[in-house]
Amino acid sequence: LPGFASVGSGVSEAPLPEWNLNIFLPPRSTAPVYRQIAKALAHEVQRGRLQPGDSLPGYRSLAEQLGVSRNTVMAAFQDLQAQGLIVSRTGSGSEIAAAPPVATAEVSGAASDAVLLQVPARGDMGFDLATGDRPAEPGVPEELPRTAGSGPDPRLLPVEILGRAYRRALASARRNECVLGDPQGHPRLRRALGAMLASSRGIAGGPERIFVTRGSQNAFFLIAQALIEPGEAVAVERLGPRSAWKALARAGARCLPIPVDDEGLDVEALAEVAASTRLRAVLVTPRRQYPTLVTLGPSRRARLLKLASERRFAVLEWDPDFELQFEARPVAPLAADDSQGVVIHVGTLSKLLGPNLRLGFVCGPEPLMRRMKAQRADFDGGGDLVFEQAVGDLMEEGELQSHLARMHPIYRRRRDALCAALSSELGTAVQAPPPAGGLALWVKVAPEIDVNAWASRSMQLGAPFRPGSHFDFRGAAVQGLRIGFASAREEELLDIARRMGRALIPATSGHASPVAMRIEHQ
Amino acid sequence: LPGFASVGSGVSEAPLPEWNLNIFLPPRSTAPVYRQIAKALAHEVQRGRLQPGDSLPGYRSLAEQLGVSRNTVMAAFQDLQAQGLIVSRTGSGSEIAAAPPVATAEVSGAASDAVLLQVPARGDMGFDLATGDRPAEPGVPEELPRTAGSGPDPRLLPVEILGRAYRRALASARRNECVLGDPQGHPRLRRALGAMLASSRGIAGGPERIFVTRGSQNAFFLIAQALIEPGEAVAVERLGPRSAWKALARAGARCLPIPVDDEGLDVEALAEVAASTRLRAVLVTPRRQYPTLVTLGPSRRARLLKLASERRFAVLEWDPDFELQFEARPVAPLAADDSQGVVIHVGTLSKLLGPNLRLGFVCGPEPLMRRMKAQRADFDGGGDLVFEQAVGDLMEEGELQSHLARMHPIYRRRRDALCAALSSELGTAVQAPPPAGGLALWVKVAPEIDVNAWASRSMQLGAPFRPGSHFDFRGAAVQGLRIGFASAREEELLDIARRMGRALIPATSGHASPVAMRIEHQ
Description:
The structure is a homodimer.
Chain A: H1 33-46, H2 59-66, H3 70-82, E1 86-88, E2 94-96, H4 105-108, H5 110-113, H6 159-174, H7 187-201, E3 210-213, H8 215-227, E4 233-237, H9 242-250, E5 254-258, E6 260-261, E7 264-265, H10 267-276, E8 279-284, H11 298-311, E9 314-318, E10 343-348, H12 350-353, E11 360-363, H13 366-379, H14 385-396, H15 399-426, E12 430-431, E13 440-445, H16 451-460, E14 466-467, E15 480-484, H17 490-504
Parallel strand pairs in A: 4-5, 4-8, 8-9, 9-10
Antiparallel strand pairs in A: 1-2, 3-11, 6-7, 10-11, 12-13, 13-15, 14-15
């Protein structure tokens, strides 16, 4: 198509056949137009927007774009050819020469009357970023191999059903169903979530009490922004989700760590804090404590709800994996016992779908939902309604439930495989009781082992896990570790356990051993 | 399947065939187990989790779930049947009776030893929301008919190509390409955006200078959080995007309105402010001023960049519709002239794809990109990488460009149709010059017309538009209005212009006329 040539524009891996190459001429130049064009193109070469081998638009295309005659463009190209900047291409059209002159008289003078088209040097910045008293920045998420997290296996992503549902949702968006948007979440998905919560989790609450978020983290962020005033106190479990604490801190919360033991959150300790400090909320993971997986004891549950109601603080309950229950009867979420409207229940579908498919939900009192809805316009205006509708469809059709039923035996076998492998490869160095659900283990580590050092060395050997200190409020050492079992196959899990074992053996080379320990078993 | 019955759980429009109905028994009850089960089910009816007609799980299914014998469940069901709470269903299984007794002795005593499963009354909240000195809450987005906004037509959504690309991206996620995520945006999309910016907008900058956001609003939010400290001053155009100001204010910015005239932002007025106030940034829409569509004059452009560089403030440039240029040569974005790294360029693909498909981008100095990337973990962890990859694919394959080429003549005709209809229906009451691109008109309104009153009445008549005051920093009256032309067909646009005309005629009924005006034309 001689009328529509264009360029790869310096990104040689990704030639774009169809973006116009726009050349901007100075609006008030008195130079002959062909010279202006030549200078502008020369300048693009100088600053690297056009690179050797990039093809140039055809005469007609460029003439049309610039509103000049073809002859004017031809004259400009002849000028550039004479300078050695462009060459005629075999076939048709022209391209930037393989070795264009660094600077000609024409080019070096170009800045005087051509528009200055510049790119700042890498990292150049003509202004300053905020440096004041801001929440500490978290590190960019580390790029860890799979078992470091507790996500589902991407290889088990339900591509067919989700792809079909997405396409259907797109077609329905074309029929105008969700033009206007709903920052609280697509009504169909909220209805489906309401039915799921009522049936599976025992939480009665209609679509008005449900808010769809982009995963758990987004839920914590939106709740914190709606709930917390700067300087207010929020109690958290001493071992817990660091990223959630960051979302609370960003809203100005002062987080107060409360001990956790074999029955979960120490509610008596919380009561003492609540007696002396006005609490806005407590963040708790009652069914499978994050990360220790213990269950909040029955009397503590009742005491916690009573305390919250008396002191009027919110119970922010995170329950990310209720539907991933492999055996035994599930314990009810706190929200199922909440008669006073004190519980804000947070869950996620991300673990049921696939990694990076962020879809979380909040179930809580309607005034909170309305506040979150109003504020969301400032952040991003709402979620991805097409995706939300697609997942709502999958739930209403029972497809998500069927997918989950297929996943359960797979994940259960992987859990058992990792528990067995840890026991056989690490012996008494660890205790890894199989949890009744979820996608990760909490492994108790023998007291003589430096878990942080072990984690670093194990990561180097390709078997990453999170040391307990990662979950401690103050980063203190904890004799435990969290490792995901869902995203690796059984033979891969055995291999990982072996690497973890090798990482426990003190290095014999000149390298300083990261681990000082005695392993009873080996 | 008698072994897997379940319930619609009160949401009768959406029966869910496969979520288990989980019944939670009290962990320490001493009552006979069949009585515990009967009481728990009765309680679920009492609180509305189970509703008349809902089917109950089969004996075997419930026995398995609760870890009891089938006979125990049968005994419980017989008990409930005797109370009139459940009935046998024709075929198999049981369901909740059409009119279950309001409270039996059994049921009313249930709370004593069954787990309390409650739902708070609608709106009940056992805690308080933050009420302190917070940024004003915006109203929930109004549900306006199409022409109120300036979005694309959902009926022109490229369902086929986008649906295919999404499915391919899902399949590639299954092959593990984007497990780890990149909060800065999918590398393929950033590469494609880099090529587009270089070719089309004249902005040279590789993928490291590009950040993918969930639309323009999300871009403003993320930039503001990374850039601004509470209390800092940010200059804005006196007529401009209200939602962007809210994002700035949320980060603590003090927004200072600067006048706008026929050549855009009054840069001399800005210079005066900058001489007395330390500015962190200026938010500007140089190519098509939002909402007046005027172009920033050439000498003002140069002066603005020089001023920013001297005073070290950022130029936050919003250019939402560069690729929607129907005729005439496009003016270069400021970012194309930026040699000092002062410009942060914000654009969006949302208008090229479809409404609610939020996909924006930022191109700016790398240190800012890194800061935004680090902070994003707190908000939502990143965008939708599957969707981002799908759109990146469409761009690399030229599909998005082809779609755009198909849209251009359609939108151009609609623009012309609306301009003609406004002229024929409203005469000298308005002046609506056709813009060279974008998806909305800025219509100048004769001085004798009360634009706010006209807008309310026109909305009632089904022809919504935004009065100029909506865009004014202080909400003052402005003799202009913004109306989208892209999302309605030509005959619909004519109808809208007619309704706007009717809205201008003072009401004859007893209703107070919202408009006090003289129309020269009619």
